[in-house]
Amino acid sequence: MTNDIAKLLKEAFFFCAFAQPLHLCGYMQLPFFYIVDYNSSQKEIVLDEDTSRHVVQVLRMKEGEKLNLTDGKGNLIIAEIIDAHKKHCSVNVNDSTFTPQSSRKTTIAISLLKNSNRFEWFLEKATELGILEIIPLICERTEKQKFRYDRMKGICISAMLQSQQCWLPVLREPVKYIEYIKSKCNPDLTKFIAHCEEAAEKQNLSTFQRLNKSTILIGPEGDFTKQEIELALQNNFVPVSLGETRLRTETAGVVAAVLFCQV
User: Fold this and answer.
1) Between β-strands 75-83 and 66-70, what pairing exists: parallel, antiparallel or unpaired?
2) How far from 247 is each of 123, 150, 216, CA to CA, in Å?
3) Which residues of the chain fall below pLDDT 70?
């Protein structure tokens, strides 16, 4: 990784750590948990068994103590425990606020990896950086096609909570490359493909101005095939590079996330 990219990543994660909305700062000192659904009319919420166990048995929280909840759709709920049951802990809603989603609508479509740990690392970092949507791709050179959706979504949820955000990225089921390329996209969407082939028309992604609606294709180990690259170009994807060195797939995904969300 070049020094410029390393510096960019460092600055981006520093930004994520300290650039939280001001109205969240005081609340985020409380323990923070995820709930699947929430509507503003709710006055009482029963936590699921895993969350209840963590609240009651791990953190040893009692009736009267407060915690934060989010549904990953912009809602932040400040709640008070009224029944510290280890399997179905109940809380009262004291207050709730809604954080609008970022104006940057960013999607990363990235090949699955043979090493699941590396793909999980990418999911964690992309979530921390604020990517809106993640689409696992099955390309011609993708070596592993098995995808444990529940585990992968759990990693996104954990990263959302750790980075104190209220928006969970949309994680799609894996899709074949050709199907995604030919799918109908928002006409306002700027589409990129990052590949390693020599091409005179390639620009560095960092040279593009602020993009509010964008998606990028990141290939597998061994890169996209020439046919896959040609297919993307035929469907109006703009070829780009992510720096002067060849990056691992998961690193390329994170660099793209930084450039999309923080620059």
Assistant:
1) antiparallel
2) 16, 28, 15
3) 1-28, 200, 262-263
Would you tell me how many other CB atoms lie within 10 Å of the CB of residue 92? 15
Same domain, 74 and 191: no
* CB contact at 8 A, 70 and 35: yes
pTM of the model as a whole: 0.86
Q: Using an 8 Å Cβ cutoff, are 92 and 44 in contact?
A: yes
Point out the domain boundary residue: 98, 121, 143: 98
- Would you give the end-to-end CA distance of the chain in angstroms? 18
Q: Which residue, of 98, 123, 151, is where some domain finishes? A: 98
The pLDDT of residue 73 is: 96
According to DSSP, the β-strands at 175-176 and 170-171 are unpaired
Structural contact between residues 193 and 237, judged by C-beta atoms closer than 8 angstroms: yes
What is the number of structural domains in the chain?
2
* Residue 76 shares a structural domain with residue 63: yes
* 214-262 pLDDT, tens digit each: 999 999 999 999 999 999 999 999 999 998 888 999 999 999 999 888 6
Residue 18, pLDDT score: 40
Give the torsion through C-alpha atoms of 36, 163, 208, 243, to 10 deg: -120
The CATH number covering residue 7 comes to 3.40.1280.10
Report the distance separating Cα 112 and Cα 220, nearest Å: 7
**Domain carrying residue 113:** 3-15+102-261
